[in-house]
């Protein structure tokens, strides 16, 4: 006969590792460990020699510390207030945590801004719906020449670059994966190292399709909505994020060796300037060992048709972001372009990818994939693998 379920086992299932907390906050695990060592911000009741497991109340404490530092509270004081807040809610810190906090406060007061190499200061937890939060400064050797860390305020209440504090810097994400939220936080802080690390981890751990659909795209859309609603503000966030997404995808998209299978031709329509989705398709084809030729954004019509004739592709994927760039006549010309010897001429299948093609009917020789996974499934079938 089995006894009642062990509540500690259920608690462990609901807890996060230090790495998981780091991904949630968009920082490195080393930074999270440094907060625990300096300020006592860590899992309550952790036993020496066992892996650290962060319960929901532990995560709330470190998130509150990030929120306070984002408003200009010194890190040691922010840690003290966060721990006091936890005690008021009934999650009283252990004696070990309290001792560590006092020691961290004293060290911060006497040592000033001393930091171990590579360890950034606390980062803001840019949670949705928390107005007034700003990205926290990085208290490290990477401080800008202005003397202010990213997100810090000067005496006028503005951040470096003239941005006024007080408004929410959070991207409008909604319900997303922790990796996506961490990516958005890192992008708002302009923390290129964290953005790169989160993207690489997402592709490695989740796979390309999930990383694209559930981490990269929600963050990119949110960044676009943010700067569109704020005028020219935050456009730097979208640019930095887009560049790192493209770089991550291109690192994955190693072109396979030339083989007997005709390649897939990837191109943006002549007036189409967006190319990130093409990078995602190329990376997916590379993962599957399938050949492709990447021509990027804004391929002129004559060049596109010439490339079809010269490469003899199995398929042509044409990206259009908006109806204004979706030239159906050109797509049909590509689908009708034939190559090969007389009597055995072939034509490519044409995939109309992107929201620009929505609303129009597909015709013979064209396909309309619903997303990255669907496009890769179509292309895998067309290449006979």
Summed up:
The chain has 385 residues and is mainly alpha-helical.
Task: Report on the architecture of this protein.
- The structure is a single chain.
- By secondary structure, the chain is mainly alpha-helical.
- The protein folds into 3 domains: 14-111, Multidrug-efflux Transporter Regulator, Chain: A, Domain 2 (Orthogonal Bundle); 173-252, Methionine synthase domain (Methyltransferase, Methionine Synthase (B12-binding Domains), Chain A, domain 1); 264-382, Cobalamin-binding domain (Rossmann fold, 3-Layer(aba) Sandwich), CATH 3.40.50.
- It has helices spanning 7-13, 18-25, 29-39, 56-70, 75-88, 95-111, 178-188, 192-206, 208-229, 235-252, 276-287, 301-311, 328-336, 372-382, and strands at 264-268, 292-294, 315-319, 349-353, 366-367.
- Helix 13 links the parallel strand 3 (315-319) and strand 4.
- Helix 4 (56-70) crosses helix 5, helix 8 (192-206) runs antiparallel to helix 9 (208-229) and helix 11 crosses helix 14.
- It is elongated.
- The model is unreliable at 5-13 and 91-167 (pLDDT under 50).
């Amino acid at each position: 006969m089995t006894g009642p379920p062990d509540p500690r086992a259920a608690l462990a299932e609901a807890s996060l590792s230090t790495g998981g907390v780091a991904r949630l906050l968009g920082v490195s695990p080393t930074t999270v460990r440094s907060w625990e060592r300096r300020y006592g911000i860590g899992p309550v009741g952790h036993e020496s020699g066992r892996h650290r497991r962060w319960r929901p109340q532990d995560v709330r404490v470190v998130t509150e510390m990030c929120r306070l530092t984002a408003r200009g509270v010194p890190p040691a004081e922010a840690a003290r207030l966060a721990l006091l807040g936890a005690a008021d809610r009934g999650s009283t810190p252990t004696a070990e945590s309290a001792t560590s906090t006092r020691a961290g406060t004293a060290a911060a007061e006497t040592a000033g801004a001393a930091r171990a190499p590579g360890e950034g200061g606390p980062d803001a937890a840019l949670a949705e719906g928390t107005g007034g939060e700003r990205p926290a400064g990085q208290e490290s050797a990477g401080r800008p020449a202005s003397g202010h860390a990213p997100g810090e305020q000067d005496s006028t209440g503005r951040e470096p670059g003239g941005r006024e504090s007080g408004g929410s810097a959070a991207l409008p994400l909604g319900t997303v994966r922790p990796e996506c939220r961490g990516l958005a936080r890192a992008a708002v802080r302009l923390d290129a190292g964290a953005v790169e690390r989160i993207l690489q981890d997402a592709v490695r751990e989740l796979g390309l399709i999930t990383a694209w659909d559930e981490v990269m795209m929600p963050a990119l859309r949110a960044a676009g909505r943010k700067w569109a609603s704020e005028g020219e503000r935050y456009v730097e966030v979208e640019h930095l994020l887009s560049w790192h997404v493209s770089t991550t995808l291109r690192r994955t998209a190693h072109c396979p060796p030339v083989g007997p299978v005709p390649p897939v031709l990837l191109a943006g329509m002549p007036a189409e300037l967006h190319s990130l989705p093409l990078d995602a398709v190329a990376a997916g084809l590379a993962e599957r060992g399938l050949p492709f030729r990447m021509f990027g954004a804004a391929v002129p019509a004559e060049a596109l048709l010439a490339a079809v004739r010269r490469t003899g592709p199995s398929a042509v994927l044409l990206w259009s972001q908006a109806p204004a760039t979706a030239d159906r006549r050109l797509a049909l010309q590509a689908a009708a372009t034939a190559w090969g010897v007389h009597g055995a001429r072939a034509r490519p299948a044409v995939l109309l990818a992107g929201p620009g093609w929505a609303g129009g009917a597909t015709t013979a020789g064209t396909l309309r994939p619903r997303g990255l996974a669907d496009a890769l499934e179509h292309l895998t079938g067309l290449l006979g693998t």
